[in-house]
TrEMBL record:
Descriptive protein name: Drug/metabolite transporter (DMT)-like permease
Top-level taxon: Bacteria
Length: 331
């Protein structure tokens, strides 16, 4: 999902720090990064299915808060195992951007996605969120001064045409409606804001520290639903509670860790392309687990969204002549 793009930004920004480490990186078996990447994709895909499954028992706000609290606790415990001298916290000048990242990407994103999946199936939601990287590229032209070249414009047109196709497919499907698609677009938009605000923060802070703090900020945004979460915790079945724990622990805490590991041993741009498998993995998991499949037209729209993202990554001929550093590529 678009998820790969946001983690890619983290790893690319933090790469110079890792390269400057006094301890040389130990060689690893070639299959380990591949396995770590595969685990990440499966966990992220499973998150869409878990959210959809829990939607009938846990309201969007309570689900968001519960997931973020569990993820923050897990990441905080991991940070405590590190020597204090190795932790890198954000610089004071980056605090406003960190607040924006946590509020938009971790807070509002989760609220919008959870609400969307109460109206549309897991596979369709994952397909719509794929428009996120296109929004990142668009916002980068406004706030980072990047060039608005013709491939970006063409890619945006193709990608948003895909969203329209998905909306049309969902509006006439028994498992979805237009409001659900629009909520998924809101999730994609807040993800894009999170990516752009996160990148400068990672100039001074480590990815793990940044993710932990963003989870805490997102949880604060979701605090108005604390009463809802208490009610759910008091009445929910063991299976529902375990589902919320799963979302916070595995697709959030563990998946970010395995993705960072894979990224540290693999080309960032190449690995980011594998995240396009997430919507199709989500649909494949939802079929046996939830007995639901997105309408065929939604897959057509999703393919257009992915094609749009790929088009925005193309460069005009003048730029192709000069190689673009990997850490300058907007996923």
């Amino acid at each position: 999902m678009s998820y790969g793009a946001r983690v890619t930004s983290s790893a690319r920004t933090s790469a110079p720090t890792g390269a400057a480490s006094p301890e040389p990186r130990q060689p690893v078996a070639a299959w380990l990064p591949v396995a770590a990447g595969a685990v990440t994709l499966l966990l992220w895909a499973s998150a869409f299915v878990a959210i959809r499954h829990l939607g009938s028992d846990v309201p969007p706000g309570a689900l968001s808060l519960g997931r973020l609290l569990i993820a923050a606790a897990a990441l905080g415990a991991l940070l405590l195992t590190r020597p204090s001298g190795t932790r890198r916290w954000p610089a004071r000048r980056h605090v406003p951007l960190l607040l924006l990242c946590g509020a938009a990407w971790f807070g509002i994103y989760n609220l919008a996605l959870n609400a969307a999946e109460q109206r549309i199936d897991a596979g369709t939601a994952a397909l719509v969120v794929q428009v996120g990287p296109i929004l990142v590229a668009l916002l980068a032209t406004v706030f980072l001064g990047e060039q608005l070249h013709r491939w970006l414009v063409i890619g945006m047109g193709v990608g948003f045409a895909g969203v329209v196709v998905i909306a049309q497919a969902s509006s006439g499907h028994e498992s979805g409606d237009l409001t659900g698609v629009l909520l998924a677009v809101v999730a994609a938009a807040t993800y894009a804001v999170g990516v752009l605000s996160q990148k400068p923060v990672l100039q001074s802070a480590g990815p793990l520290e940044t993710t932990f703090l963003a989870c805490v900020i997102g949880a604060v945004v979701c605090l108005p639903w604390a009463g809802e979460l208490v009610d759910v915790a008091g009445t929910a079945s063991v299976g529902t509670v375990l589902g919320v724990v799963y979302l916070g622990l595995l697709p959030t805490a563990v998946a970010f860790t395995t993705w960072a590991y894979a990224l540290s041993h693999t080309n960032a741009s190449t690995l980011a392309l594998t995240t396009f498998l997430v919507p199709f993995l989500a649909a494949a998991l939802a079929w046996p687990l939830l007995d639901e499949v997105p309408p065929l037209l939604a897959f057509v729209g999703g393919t257009l969204c992915i094609a749009g993202v790929l088009l925005t990554r193309r460069r005009p001929r003048a730029e192709v002549a000069a190689p673009v550093p990997d850490d300058d590529v907007t996923a």
